[in-house]
Amino acid sequence: MIRSTIRTTIRQLLGEATPVFWTNALLDQWCEDAQKDIVWKAKLKRTRGTFNTTPATSRYTISSVLPNCLRIMHDGIWIYDNTQAKWFKLKYRTKEYMDQMYPDWPNSDEHTYTAWVTSTVYAVGDLVYIPSTSSAAAIAYECLTAHTSGTFATDLAAAKWEVSTWNNSSVPQIYMEDTDEDILELYPIPQASCIGTGYARVYYSSIPTVMASDNSQPDLDTHHILDHAVVDYVCAMGFASRGYGDLSNDYWSKYYDKIKSYMIEKNNKDDEDLVMRNYRNY
User: Fold this and answer.
1) Which of 38, 61, 78, 93 has the most other CB atoms within 10 Å of its CB?
2) Which residues have C-beta within 8 Å of that of residue 70, sequence separation ≥ 6?
3) DSSP 112-128
4) Is the pTM of this model over 0.85?
């Protein structure tokens, strides 16, 4: 559907054929907001980009290094090491996790290992070494599945541990990103072998193109259900702005159902921002 058709449909559902409470400009802006929300939740417009890593720098401004980035895919960052001539995949960690595990970040390259002990509860991301090896030769292992330890060899064979990429000390191992604050943090700070043009590779969803005229179409997958999801989003916003909470919630439910139906059809995995969030209250 083109924008004028979408807006006409929205006005019919809102019961306002001509602008009174809701101006065309407001409805058009909500259509743009809907585009971004759909791209975010359904992980549309996927692409790949690179940016340059610079010496002694761990923090980057997302809008500067990836101007068209809406969201970075989970575990979607790779770093190139020219000494080993290979790419390393970084693991995503939340800011809360970083604050808890690495209190001095981003100003410290310290990462903490503990000696593995049986009958101990381990969480995903915990780092251990086997105390039977010397500290100089110790290999770090990272917990993949939360569990209570038994025999290390048995737990390792059961894929509860993997050799940690922390063993490659020159290469960043994890990243933290916050699109609201427009920051991307690599940790530890990349060393000389990881500094260069295009040494950071990122998989992300790009910002949809603005509908510049009433003849423009949403910059989404051509699947018709997403155009109707735009309609539901704007109706939910419209009714919420007038205090009609029940009607707004009905349209939020329809909106999320359409996105989930689309993702199931496309065989995409449900996103943590989408699952079971059927209602918004204003």
Assistant:
1) 38
2) 36, 39, 40, 45, 179, 204, 205, 206, 207, 208
3) --EE--SS-EE-TT-EE
4) no
Contact predicate 234/218, CB 8 Å: no
- Identify the three-state secondary structure at position 130: coil
Write out pLDDT tens, residues 133-174: 543 345 678 899 999 999 999 999 999 998 776 665 668 888
- Residues 60 and 199 sit within 8 Å (Cβ to Cβ): no
**What residue ranges do the domains of the chain occupy?**
3-44+209-265, 46-206
User: For 204-244, what is each residue's pLDDT tens digit?
Assistant: 999 999 999 999 999 998 778 999 999 999 999 999 999 99
Cα dist. 43→32, 62, 86, 204 in Å?
16, 18, 27, 8
Distance CA 162, CA 200 (A): 24
Helix axis angle for 245-265 and 224-241, nearest 10°, is 160
Q: Is 97 exposed, middle or buried (0-12, 13-18, 19+ CB in 10 A)?
A: middle
- State the Cα–Cα distance between residues 105 and 98, nearest whole angstrom: 7
pLDDT class of 276 with cuts at 50, 70, 90: very low
Report helix, strand or coil for 231: helix
Count how many Cα atoms sit within 13 Å of the Cα of residue 24 in the half-sphere of its side chain: 10
- Bridge-based pairing of strands 114-115 and 86-89 is unpaired
Helices (H), the chain: 3-14, 24-42, 62-65, 95-101, 152-157, 224-241, 245-265
Structure tokens at 174: 């994890």
Q: Please report, for residues 47, 57, 166, 203, the alpha-carbon distance to residue 188 in angstroms, rounded to integers and kept in the order given.
A: 26, 10, 9, 20
